């Protein structure tokens, strides 16, 4: 006896879709299937987010390595790595890109994740840029005393500013906000040294050595940088050792920052009750990303010296630079004088961290400088003598 014929559903409905009004399968999708589909959507967003960030980098040429004119008879060549040419105008653009890639690839940031950062400066500007690029909400937690110019710049890049009355509260408030919004606290001060691939991948160290390859002294005697998070100095110091270069790393530290004293005294828990006047570098505590063992020398620089140096550099370079560049150059000039005294020839590379336009109301404003109790006359005399004779006080 022949039984009833059985139709293979795939023959009449190849796509496997239930016809309208048909009963669904008696076997519901498993929990594992549901989770897997959710993960697939997340993975798709992550892949596209990484592509967007990498495409942004691919659209940008590498930053320039500029010559700072010193008398040729000194036998010392000085270069500035001009980080002001990044889309957001500062060295922090590199950090923000690395932090976003780090957070995305770790699964901490996915589609629609609010991103929170404790910053009122260039890092917040750069992170706001990348958040906007990815369609993510970005909130910068900052002291209520933050200048209107900085607030406007962060907001122009799509960020929102969240204010606290006590500057030291920015970290706890960032964590609270992230928890309450199911967001991610980027925490630049903790993750800066780990987010950057210090072995290469076109980091700032690899870029410097590649650009120096055809110069008179291709392997610098010194690279000089400041420390804010500590991430840049950690990348430079590690890369130098990894590539077995003889280059030494000097880190400059501004007045009221504790990095220098903590490094000198071996006191990693050193703190201060006030922050640095020089934006982007210096901290009232030793941040987790600061790797002192990768540093060969540290140099303390007064605020008046940093500001006097950017005033002097404007005359030499024909452009304004930020305060941290002044701190870098003050440290460089002392090393140049020392090399000359020893009869050494070679090259030194430092960082032009950002342009000076955003500091017109502060470092380039005589009234503001006087209100900080700073006098620039003595450091300007030191700088004039150095450029004339190569001697350093």
Automatic annotation (TrEMBL):
Any Gene Ontology biological process: L-cysteine catabolic process to pyruvate
Tryptophan synthase beta chain-like PALP domain segment(s): 63-354
Enzyme class (EC, first level): lyase
Compositionally biased intervals (Polar residues): 1-15
E.C. code: 4.4.1.1
Cofactor(s) needed for function: pyridoxal 5'-phosphate
Main location (coarse class): cytoplasm
Catalysed reaction, written as an equation: L-cysteine + H2O = hydrogen sulfide + pyruvate + NH4(+) + H(+)
Region spans: Disordered: 1-34
Keyword S-adenosyl-L-methionine: no
Superkingdom as given in the UniProt entry: Bacteria
Cell location: Cytoplasm
Pfam families noted in UniProt: PALP
Single GO molecular function: pyridoxal phosphate binding
Protein family per UniProt: Belongs to the cysteine synthase/cystathionine beta-synthase family. Cds1 subfamily.
Function as written in the Swiss-Prot or TrEMBL entry: A cysteine desulfhydrase that generates hydrogen sulfide, H(2)S. The H(2)S produced by this enzyme stimulates respiration in M.tuberculosis, mediated primarily via cytochrome bd with a lesser contribution from cytochrome bc1/aa3. H(2)S modulates the balance between respiration and glycolysis, and also contributes to redox homeostasis. Probably eliminates toxic levels of Cys (which can induce oxidative stress). A cysteine desulfhydrase that generates hydrogen sulfide, H(2)S. The H(2)S produced by this enzyme modulates the balance between respiration and glycolysis, and contributes to redox homeostasis. Probably eliminates toxic levels of Cys (which can induce oxidative stress).
UniProt protein name: L-cysteine desulfhydrase Cds1
Organism taxonomic ancestry: Bacteria, Bacillati, Actinomycetota, Actinomycetes, Actinopolysporales
Gene name as annotated: cds1
